[in-house]
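Thread: cutinase, structure

OP (GT): Posting the sequence first so everyone is looking at the same thing. Length is 159 residues per the record. Can we get the structure tokens written out before standup tomorrow? I want them in the notebook alongside the other entries.
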Amino acid sequence: NLKMKNLSYLSLLSLSTVFAAIRENYDAVTPLRIDAIERVFAFYQARQITTTANNDTENELSGPCKPVTVIFARGTGESGNVGGRHSPGPALFSEMRTMMGSQNVAIQGVDYRADIFGYLKGGDPDGSMRYYNLTEKAASQCQDTKIVLAGYSQGAQLA
């Protein structure tokens, strides 16, 4: 019975956490946004993007300056700071590196929560600030680089 009581307590605790998160973000949830989310997820599932890229995290802004610097923010629920194998980010980077040479392209991902509540708010505010700060850093640190701002789904909302 003790195990059952602990399990019930944990279930209620988890449920109360979910309700608190929904209540905190309730003003951002509208039927139109829910419909938009469903369409985005359906589109994403239908495409099933796959790449041979293994990195879901890119932090090349801390390295040497290159002719092109890409600042990229992943979509809602994606891994790392640029998304995994099924994300358009790594596929884009792979193509850019193939066409331009990896010695000419620096990729920097944006670390942010990338959860559904940030998406419903129109983009995570903290993530937007991190995106801005990385862009400023790239511009001041590598003054001759061409900066490409990119993102997928919520990541595009940050820019």
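GT: Both are above now. Quick notes for whoever picks this up: The CA atoms of residues 49 and 87 lie 6 Å apart. The first strand starts at residue 68 and ends at 73.
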